[in-house]
Write a structure and sequence with these properties.
CATH architecture of the largest domain: 2-Layer Sandwich
Distance between the termini: 24 Å
Number of strands: 15
Mean pLDDT: 92
CATH superfamily of the largest domain: ATPase, nucleotide binding domain
Low-confidence stretches: none
Largest sheet: 5 strands, mixed
Strand content: 25-35%
CATH topology of the largest domain: Nucleotidyltransferase, domain 5
Bound molecules: adenosine-5'-triphosphate, magnesium ion
Radius of gyration: 20 Å
Number of helices: 9
Number of domains: 3
């Protein structure tokens, strides 16, 4: 009786262009994909991670739950962008109580916001590379007004927000249970969404560097919309291939390739800066997710500029998927965009 379990919840990834929802059943045979769906939200409803049109998004979420016949009300959501600050800090080894006090008294110097305006969380990553007397601590600060905004949204949609995660961590959560070999290789997870890109360099499942940038598929949509004088809505459908604009296909391809090239340069810069640091090793593996993976020239650009294996994430590899319910062609199409919602759906109510 899985749905009676008190720790059960649904993963809800509220992206700035697509809302994705996933529900996973835990059975004796393993984790089974039970529900999966996504829905576009009107452009401009979420701007820089902040909710601009609460009623419209709440309606979309409610409708998505209805069409997917999801009855569970407990959800895990995630946030990202400007209002979330993630830093790795270095401090001398302390016991738990001392560490707590140090984090709260020193956090201000790492966060560009007033300490009273943020919720702080942290996790000890391990011993510092520089000295055994020091430890690395992952510090996460999320603006309180952002958290209350998302709680209000979820409640307006008739749901209970049980976990508020960070996009990058939800993605890492999926990566950690996927059957990848050789986790000792330095690996870069990249999520290119509509309005932001998150980078996370990992080794043996521990994060070594995280960064968010403002790059995303909206750059292509905005350029197509302005060059061809069409609405952003129409431009998105043209870019995604939903409308076949044969006359302008070459020009659209060129815009996509140029934007993809700028993403590659930005990513190479981060990778090169990381690799030139003390003790830092070469990034050997890159795993892509988000709608950006579909953009012409992006994957190939990374392959030609970096000496690393580049692949697209398949979050369903860690799940049992009934092909009659979710045809392979559908699963393949949505894999890259669904990864964060799967990472959220794998959380349990009592997770931190
Ligand atoms: N086949 C395709 N070709 C080009 N772009 C595509 C394709 N399919 C989806 N996209 C684009 O990917 C974007 C959606 O990706 P994703 O769902 O990862 O973004 P998001 O999570 O909503 O955004 P963010 O995480 O930045 O808030 C949309 O802008 C969409 O137009
Ligand atoms: Mg996203």
């Amino acid at each position: 009786m899985i749905f009676g379990k008190k720790d059960h919840l649904v993963g809800l990834d509220i992206g700035s262009s697509f809302i994705k929802v996933a529900e996973i059943k835990v059975t004796g045979k393993g984790h089974v994909l039970n529900k999966l769906g996504m829905s576009r939200i009107p452009p401009g409803s979420i701007v820089e991670g902040r909710i601009a049109d609460m009623a419209a998004i709440a309606d979309t979420i409610r409708l998505l739950f209805k069409t997917q016949k999801i009855r569970e009300k407990n959800v895990a959501i995630s946030t990202g962008g400007h209002s979330v600050v993630i830093k790795t800090i270095n401090t001398i080894v302390k016991d738990e109580a001392q560490l707590h006090d140090t984090i709260y008294s020193e956090a201000e110097q790492y966060i560009p916001y007033d300490i009273d305006d943020v919720n702080i969380d942290y996790q000890v990553l391990g011993e510092s590379d520089f000295s055994p007397d020091q430890m690395n601590v992952l510090l996460v600060a999320v603006k309180k007004d952002l958290v209350s905004e998302y709680i209000e949204l979820i409640q307006l949609a008739g749901l209970n927000p049980k976990i508020i995660d960070v996009d990058t961590f939800a993605l890492q959560n999926v990566y950690e249970i996927l059957p990848y070999e050789n986790r000792e290789k330095t690996t870069l997870l990249i999520d290119v969404g509509a309005s932001k890109t998150s980078l996370n360099i990992l080794k043996a499942n521990a994060s070594l560097m995280m960064r968010d940038t403002m790059s995303g598929t909206n750059q292509i949509i905005e350029e197509v919309s302005s060059q061809f004088d069409i609405s952003p809505d129409e431009a998105e459908q043209v870019v995604n291939g939903e409308i076949n604009d044969v006359a302008n296909q070459d020009a659209i391809g060129e815009i996509s390739r140029q934007v993809a090239q700028s993403w590659c340069s930005e990513i190479c810069e981060v990778v090169n800066t990381y690799q030139s640091g003390v003790n830092d090793e070469k990034v050997e593996k890159i795993i892509l997710s988000g709608g950006g993976v579909f953009v012409e020239g992006f994957k190939d650009g990374l392959l030609s500029e970096l000496e690393a294996d580049v692949s697209i994430i398949n979050p369903f590899e860690c799940l049992l998927v009934n092909e009659r319910k979710f045809p392979a062609s559908y699963i393949e199409k949505v894999a890259a965009m669904a990864a964060i919602s799967i990472g959220l759906a794998l959380r349990r109510v009592d997770d931190k």
